[in-house]
Amino acid sequence: MQIKQQISMVFNMDKCLGCNTCTLACKNVWTNREGAEYMFWNNVETKPGIGYPKQWEDQKKYKGGWQRSPNSKGPRLRYGSRFQMMMNLFYNPVMPQMDDYYGKGPFTYTYEDLHSEKSTKKSQPVARPKSQITGEEDIDITYAVNWDDNGAGATVDGLGGMDSNFAGMSDTERKALLSFRDSFILYLPRICNHCLNAGCVGSCPSGAAYKREEDGIVLIDQDRCRAWRYCVSACPYKKTYFNWRTSKMEKCVLCYPRVETGQPPACFHACPGRIRYMGPLLYDLDRVPEAANAPEEDLVQAQRDIILDPNDRQVQIAAGDAGISDAWMEACARSPSYRMFKQWEIALPLHPEFRTLPCLFYVPPESPVRTDANSTEHYNMTNGNSVLPDLDEFRIPVRFLASMLSAGNEQMIKTALLRQLAVRAYRRSARVEGKADAEVLKSVGLSEDDAREMHRLLALAHFHERFVVPTTRRERTANSPFIERGVSGFSELSPGDKPRRRTSFHGQSQEVGS
User: Fold this and answer.
1) DSSP assignment letter at 389
2) Residues near 343 by Cβ (< 8 Å), separated by ≥ 6?
3) CB 488 within 8 A of CB 204
4) Model pTM greater than 0.85?
5) What tens digit of pLDDT does each residue of 442-458 get?
6) How far is 92 from 231, CA to CA, in rounded Å?
7) Each residue of 3-17: pLDDT tens digit?
8) CATH ID of 273-466, from 3.30.70.20, 3.40.366.10, 3.40.50.740, 1.10.260.40
9) For residues 264 and 258, is the Cβ–Cβ distance under 8 A?
């Protein structure tokens, strides 16, 4: 067992307002400069919808992520073999184009025309769309970030109907779910998942993309980067970007300067809905290839199995031997990510079938229930059977959520939603009826302590409870400048560097060194 550290995140989709305050915070801090106009390290998408870039979830089109290998050594990149990638080194045909992000590129408006004396003499001044890259004016705006914002699928034959999460449904089912009466909407905030088996790291020919040893944050070394752009192709979430001004690749850095001082990232701090949580995890690096190569229906459970219990005495001893600090261990014991993903099993990874083992988890939404068309009571949304709804009364189909969050395993979604509903029922029985109903918790595998802690964390948690961020012990790495580069892609160590453990190109763990 080789214990590693990993910062992880949870987004509670039930509480997302779709306000994009997180997007603005990230944009102003990191990508408000030339060459990064089209970059949105953080964005909030509306589902159903095709997202940003267009249809990023369709890996038949983009060939991102990993695919299962028949052997036990680990999955293989969906893009192709190392030889195939090297043959296409100077021409990479499989990646989104600018049209998939913006129609004519990122744009602004000719705001100067609003204040020009010449433009106001004959008619009302108008600010026209203007390309931020070429300066061309009066460009056609055909797509942009948040293009289908709040659209709820827009129309049956519109962009919502192209959502990849409808793939397992018939045309009749899809059209029914996108009809006006039964349409649904949910917000999907997205950042880099800082995966355990990151496709961008495994595909980089120059070894520029890597995972830091101290916290698992995935970064791109700007000195090593040669802009081969395989990280764009191999990342199934399309969260790496090419900077056309510097000719370097860029991505979300999880605000690591803030994380190193115990602060949450800017987008986390800015969120008014308090949907974001951050906490550290411990995982077994030796079992990552096995977990990433599991059958689709077992991928979520396989990822949970490699997450280690920080309260286990054997894990504590092994972590101490691995040099993991007491501060990190204490933070792991309080981690909201551990509780929601591993302990309570109410949080799930986004598209686990991509086999990257993402470390950003989502609590599926308890969506509004359908109204009863035959009821004479205006507010009777559950046919009068219960104050709280049943799963089959939710407007967002379980099947749609399963396609997005559990590789089609509907039972995982049902478990997460039923446990949230059970806590609501338990709290209502205690506060309204005056007698706590513990049986409803037992039916879904929760204790009363679990229910109280879940209610506290999901509804009432203070800042320090939502963000449990251990500070980095930099004094331990002062004389080891390469220790943070714990995982790389194609590259080997430079002569004279100390041996380290890294994940190889195809995900197998091996020793490299001088």
Assistant:
1) P
2) 450
3) yes
4) yes
5) 999 999 999 999 999 99
6) 11
7) 999 999 999 999 999
8) 3.30.70.20
9) yes
